[in-house]
Amino acid sequence: MKQKKNLFELKDVSSSQIDEVSSKIKDILLSPDSQKNILLIKGPMAAGKTTLVRHLVELLGGQGVQSPTFALHQRYSLPQFEVDHLDLYRMKSELELDGLGFWDFFAAEAGLVIIEWPEKMNTAHLPTEWRQLELLISTNQTTDSRNYLLLQYF
Questions:
Q1: Please, is 79 exposed, middle or buried when counting C-beta atoms within 10 Å of its C-beta (0-12, 13-18, 19+)?
Q2: Phi and psi angles of residue 24, each rounded to the nearest 5 degrees, phi first
Q3: CB 3.0 to 4.6 Å from 40: which of 22, 27, 134, 142, for a disulfide?
Q4: Domain with 114 in it
Q5: DSSP letter assigned to residue 29
Q6: What pTM, to 2 d.p., does this model score?
Q7: CATH code: domain of residue 81
Q8: Where is 15: in which H helix or E strand?
Q9: What does the H/E/C string look like for 45-93?
Q10: pLDDT one-digit tens code per residue, 43-84
Q11: Domain tally, the chain
């Protein structure tokens, strides 16, 4: 079992404060600790996972983020590295990852692989030389706010 460390927790964040969450994640991703990062994003349907990815990629210098729900995968070129963004919600089998060249993403010297709905795959097979972060999003339907918890696994 992997050990985990709590990197930050934000509670009752409104949708207008998404930049604050994205900025905190960006700072962690650009830290000199690792140039190879996997960001697993878990949360219920309509929790704002793709919206958060859009803000994050824009803060990192990218643009044109679209939900990869139907294509499963989108790639964004940034000045520092490539971002591979996967939404596994509609994935029926892990074999679909092979067809995307998923394992080739990890041959890069630097990069960011963002996976929405990582529950649909066996994350134990992810490369250990890449820093693995997990963002847990929970929603409060009454106040339309979100809670964010970012963990790092070792």
A1: exposed
A2: -65, -45
A3: 134
A4: 4-29+36-153
A5: H
A6: 0.90
A7: 3.40.50.300
A8: none
A9: CCCCHHHHHHHHHHHCCCCCCCCCCCCCEEEEECCCCEEEEEECCCCCC
A10: 988 888 888 999 999 999 998 887 766 788 999 999 889 999
A11: 1
